[in-house]
Amino acid sequence: MSTTMPVDGLYVGLISGTSADGIDAALVRFGADASDTGCQLEHGLVLPWEPALRARLVALGQGGDLRSLDELGTLDVQVAEAFAQAAAALLRAAGVEAGDVVAIGSHGQTLRHRPAGAAYDGTHPFTWQIGDANVIAERCGITTVADFRRRDIAAGGQGAPLVPAFHAAMLHSQAEDRAVLNLGGIANFTLLPSSGDVRGFDAGPANALLDAWCLRHRGESFDRDGAFAASGRVDPVLLGRLLDEPWFALPPPKSSGREQFHLGWVEARLAGGEAPEDVQATLLELSARTVIDTLRMHQPGTRRVLTCGGGVRNPRLIECIAAQLPGCVVEPTDLHGLDADFVEAMAFAWLARQTLAGLPGNVPAVTGARGPRVLGTAYPR
User: Fold this and answer.
1) Does the fold of domain 164-336 match that of domain 9-160+342-379?
2) How far apart are CA 371 and CA 151, in angstroms?
3) What whole-number distance in Å separates Cα of residue 179 and Cα of residue 380?
4) Angle between helices 51-61 and 69-94 (to 10 degrees)
5) Which CATH number describes the domain made up of 164-336?
């Protein structure tokens, strides 16, 4: 394995997560000129998906079937074109030329995530992200690194979460036990003890179910400020049925996605006649409860929880989590130099840098892989 030093300079990180609410694009500077951590967000933006394309991606992510191989090929290019547009818009907004960027790190859009132990036959675990990196490199004129997850899967890992390596590099403290909580479509933790191994895994649904239920009953893509949930009451019987999901009891390493937690999963647990606002309140409590239960089980001495992802902007969800963690500081990663809205996009810029340097991007204790692996493939400009 190479020990080449990472190439410093400007990188672009691109990701559309489980919620598929837009493409997050981050322009990141690495090196001595960046900040105390050696990492600085120069600019960030979110490019919304074209509505019809987003609807199709969400449907496929929730277990819908592809109509044909032609549809798959078309979607692969459409997603890549959208990612390239996001990168180009980012560089225009930042006033940066393509030639000044070392590389793009593109996560792509997940259609299926079926790691070992997933809810299918498990014989041939896989993960599948689309968004052809050849197209991104060609459109942008920038070396593009993509396909980060499959090498970890091939090495016996979950292929996720991959962001803990970045969290550990940027947010670890020798003075206290910390946890980084990403509240995306799925909630996932990075556990950063003051000493000892970094761990990380998914905890359960964060925004995916909340967004989907809100869209169905309010016609809005997300529950702004948690107002829809606040208008209802938690249904303890429904909450119990949701918490009975066997996935929650699985030990780490584990990961999940929309193929596990989707509206069909919720509907199968409804008795019928529940008020929509009460279901929303219960889904928010589910997100909070699974986060709390996970943290108490795996790192009960946590003194600080650093939050990031779209759920940070849902005060109802943050208040619900913080109220159940007395004596623990719950605060956004913004206070530690990482913009909470762009942490994951920044992480894929960092992973691209690791790949080009021939350095590992996974944490085996997190994913369960047989060892450190260089992740991703580079597509030259």
Assistant:
1) yes
2) 11
3) 36
4) 120
5) 3.30.420.40
User: Does the structural domain 9-160+342-379 have CATH classification 3.40.50.720?
Assistant: no
Tokens coding 4? 């080449």
Beta strand 126-130 with 178-183 is unpaired
**Mean pLDDT, range 61-81, rounded to an integer:** 91
Burial class from Cβ neighbours inside 10 Å (0-12, 13-18, 19+) for residue 338 reads: buried
Name the 3-class secondary structure at 135.
helix
* Strand pairing report for 178-183 and 304-308: parallel
Q: How far apart are CA 302 and CA 207, in angstroms?
A: 23
Residue 295 is classified by DSSP as H
pLDDT in tens, 252-265: 988 888 778 999 99
> Tens of pLDDT along 122-175?
688 999 999 999 999 999 999 999 999 999 999 999 998 899 999 999 999 999
- What are the residue boundaries of the structural domains of the chain, listed by start? 9-160+342-379, 164-336
In angstroms, rounded to a whole number, what is the distance separating the alpha carbons of residues 42 and 26? 8
Which token pair is 314? 């849902």
Quick one: which of 53, 79, 49, 115 has its CA closest to 257? 115
